[in-house]
Amino acid sequence: LAKTTQPISMDSYEGQEVNITCSHNNIATNDYITWYQQFPSQGPRFIIQGYKTKVTNEVASLFIPADRKSSTLSLPRVSLSDTAVYYCLVGDMNGGANNLFFGTGTRLTVIP
Amino acid sequence: EADIYQTPRYLVIGTGKKITLECSQTMGHDKMYWYQQDPGMELHLIHYSYGVNSTEKGDLSSESTVSRIRTEHFPLTLESARPSHTSQYLCASSEFSGALLAFFGQGTRLTVV
């Protein structure tokens, strides 16, 4: 299971773009990179997943360099409602339950 | 929206009582999970299942037990609740070949007094 490292916390003003980087130096060939968002008192919610290059959906973009040893979640023009904890997960899609390891995540606080 | 439901949403119960936290999903997912999370802290995997009649303990030792008699249902039981069991319990499910694409319920916040 690839170990991930991400900042403990980040602050951003409303309307700014926020980039959260996750390091995963030991990522394996079959591993995917997945990001979740968790609001207080709720379960985590899937945001985006990628294997390489760039993935974009209606919520965020995910940038993955060629060596795949890191990834960056980009949230465009954040609002107060984006205040949450963001988790980076790396693992095999056919892997076991330990692939859903959430770690400490990055606590994003959006400031008015 | 994810079709995974947890009941009750909140529960306050006395020490020594037996409780069962319910979790049901209508997506036909084989894999189901229970996590425990204290406020502001990490999620800890306490139980998981890969299908009917399959249950395993997770990384965090827990005095709770689970069962998986039907695909859609994965209840968690505490035989004798204690104040140390006070926490939020989150249930999740995923397809067998979609280990990283999990859907979570809203959680049950348990308080043992």
| Multimerization state | heterodimer
* Low-confidence residue ranges of chain A: none
Provide the residue-averaged pLDDT of chain B: 93
CATH-scheme architecture of chain A: Sandwich
The arrangement of helices and strands of chain B along the chain is: EEEEEEEEEEE
Specify the CATH homologous superfamily of chain B: Immunoglobulins
Total strands of chain B: 11
Task: Work out the helix count of chain A.
Answer: 0
Low-pLDDT segments of chain B: none
Classify the secondary structure makeup of chain A into a structural class. Answer: mainly beta
CATH fold description of chain B: Immunoglobulin-like
CATH fold type of chain A: Immunoglobulin-like
Total of domains of chain B: 1
Helical proportion of chain A, percent range? under 10%
C-alpha end-to-end distance of chain B: 34 Å
Largest sheet, strands/sense/barrel of chain A: 5 strands, mixed
Number of helices of chain B: 0
Could you describe the 3D structure shown?
The complex is a heterodimer of chains A (112) and B (113). Chain A is built from no helices and nine strands. The mean pLDDT of chain A is 93. Chain A has strands at residues 9-13, 18-23, 31-38, 45-50, 53-56, 61-64, 70-75, 84-92, 106-111. Chain A has one domain: Sandwich (Immunoglobulin-like), CATH 2.60.40. With 112 residues, chain A is mostly beta strands. By secondary structure, chain B is mainly β. In chain B, 0% of the residues lie in helices and 49% in strands. Chain B has no helices and eleven strands. Chain B has strands spanning 4-7, 10-13, 19-25, 31-37, 43-51, 54-57, 65-66, 76-78, 87-94, 103-104, 108-112. In chain B, a hairpin with a 5-residue loop joins strand 4 and strand 5 (43-51). The termini of chain B are far apart. Classes of the chains: A mainly beta (112), B mainly beta (113). Chains A and B meet through strand 4 and strand 8 of A and strand 5, strand 9 and strand 10 of B.
